[in-house]
Amino acid sequence: MNWPAVLALAAGTYLLRVTGIVLRDRVRLPGRVERYVDLGATALLVALVATAALTDGTGFAGWARPAGVAVGALAAWRKVPFVLVVVLAAGTTSGLRYLGVP
Amino acid sequence: MRSLHRTIDRDDLRDALALAAAVGVVGASFGALAAAAGVPMSLAMALSLLVFAGGSQFLAVAVLAAGGSPIAAVAAGLLINVRHVPFGLAVGGNIADRWSTRLLGAHIMIDEGVAFSRARGSGRRARVAYWMCGTLLFVFWNVGTVVGVLAGSSVPDTDTFGVDAAFPAALLALLLPALRRADARRVGLAAAAVALLATPLLPAGLPVLAGLLGLFAARLPADARRDP
User: Fold this and answer.
1) Rounded distance, CA A29 to CA B59, Å?
2) Are A67 and A73 in contact (CB under 8 A)?
3) Using the beta-carbon criterion (under 8 Å), do B43 and A25 form an inter-chain contact?
4) Residue from the list B87, B164, B189 with its beta carbon closest to the beta carbon of A20
5) Cα pseudo-dihedral B182, B198, B216, B181, rounded to 10
6) pLDDT tens digit string along B52-91?
7) Dihedral angle at the C-alpha atoms of B34, B38, B40, B43, nearest 10 degrees?
């Protein structure tokens, strides 16, 4: 890593972050399109959850991680407080790995 | 923000701190990994302070550690960060009215913060949540990075603590209110399927972006049953 690379990544990332905000301000979106923008964020975040829960690199993440995520998801669905959701997910995965589950 | 302490919801603060603690642990693992890959402390810190996007930071360091060029590392990092454009479109109204404040708030835009704010609608509480979550995550991420760089190889593998499961679970919990709507559930399922199918085929970052194809599932065919 060198300074030009770090600064290029920083500047590019910041531009990406600002672009969406500027677009939102400049373009008046009709209600229906607005709903699609909202659904787009949901799509990206769910895609992020799915890949983070199940994959590592280009392969399967192993069983311990998805099991922890599933326990956390179940807890969240049962309206367990958010802090506990995080702890339960991490605790389940950690426990399974301790027992030797990959 | 004169009465900031009165405008912050206690539960929101507690939830944001839980996320921030997990982010701090991952920040430490980033610092340790960067140190192990021979990245000088100043550059590792600059990455966490100026880029502040975990996925792209890990990826850039990994590309370099694998013998890739700095240009390849930057390109890979930027690709994975393209999702911030639609995030800005969706959450831009939850940041501020004044442009100077918006430009500052843009820097702390991060997956968890976007989900955290959206889970609280689009009003004042959502705006406070955006700043609170983003700021806490920024501080913990950077403190974690310093600790990781200094501790180096004595930082244990964070997977031992199951932190890798905490993030998807937390994001999913934050998404549940949005997923109460049937069209959002259809889009989410389709997005997850596309992203998973694309993962073995496309470079990092693109599978998540491909999840946007899930938007095609937003509308049912005209003859199917309508949303409740």
Assistant:
1) 35
2) no
3) no
4) B87
5) 10
6) 999 999 999 999 888 889 999 999 999 999 999 999 999 9
7) -50
